[in-house]
Amino acid sequence: MAQQQDEVSGWYIGGGVGQFNAQIDDVDDVDGTVDEWDNDDTAYKFFGGYRMNRFLAFELDYINLGEPSGTVVPGINVDASVDGFAPYVFGTIPLGPYFEVYGRLGYYFYDATVGVENEIDERVEFDEESEDLVWGAGIGTNIGEKLNVRFEYERFDLQGVDDADALWLTAAWRF
């Protein structure tokens, strides 16, 4: 039993790429009301963690959610940039020797920059540091003894954004 515990506990590092989507409904501005702003961009993350056993891990991620941008009303463009760190508690349920389902709960400490530009190239930027809840769930598979590949959905509770989520494909090397 001690040998089996050694095989599933330990350190791991990894990274991944994903698709981040941000949606804002009913934005009020000077010219009227924008019904919806919905844009996405490629995101990436790097992470490291420690597995206590096959069911519980703790993880720290660096997450860059890309730079979604788009037009909110004719002549007004908005772009955003969000990146930061998130510590997580990670729960796993093994489904045999090769597959697992998992859930994660964390807190995202991030820097956000939002830029608004009009049709005559006047630009205003807003910078904010904040922290918000983040949670996710997914499925993983082990390839060999050390490589773990995961597909995951993650939901961010970002201030000022109605819906913010990401789909990730990640890989981790378990030591």
Model description:
A hairpin with a 3-residue loop joins strand 5 (76-95) and strand 6. The two termini are 19 Å apart. Strands 1-2-3-5-6-7-8-9 form an eight-stranded antiparallel beta barrel. It contains one helix and nine strands. It is elongated and about 60 Å long. The model is unreliable at 1-6 and 26-34 (pLDDT under 50). The protein has one helix at residues 2-8, and strands at 10-29, 32-51, 56-64, 69-73, 76-95, 99-118, 123-143, 147-156, 163-174. By secondary structure, it is mainly beta.
Short description:
This protein is mostly beta strands. Helices cover 4% and strands 78% of the residues.
What's the layout of helices and strands?
Layout: H1 2-8, E1 10-29, E2 32-51, E3 56-64, E4 69-73, E5 76-95, E6 99-118, E7 123-143, E8 147-156, E9 163-174
Antiparallel strand pairs: 1-2, 1-9, 2-3, 3-5, 4-5, 5-6, 6-7, 7-8, 8-9
Q: How are the strands of the biggest sheet laid out side by side?
A: 1-2-3-5-6-7-8-9
Any idea what the radius of gyration is? 19 Å
How far do the termini sit from each other?
19 Å
Q: Oligomeric state of the chains?
A: single chain
Quickly give the structural class.
Answer: mainly beta
Principal-axis shape: elongated
H-E string: HEEEEEEEEE
Q: What's the count of strands?
A: 9
Report strand %.
over 45%
| Poorly predicted runs of 5 or more residues | 1-6, 26-34
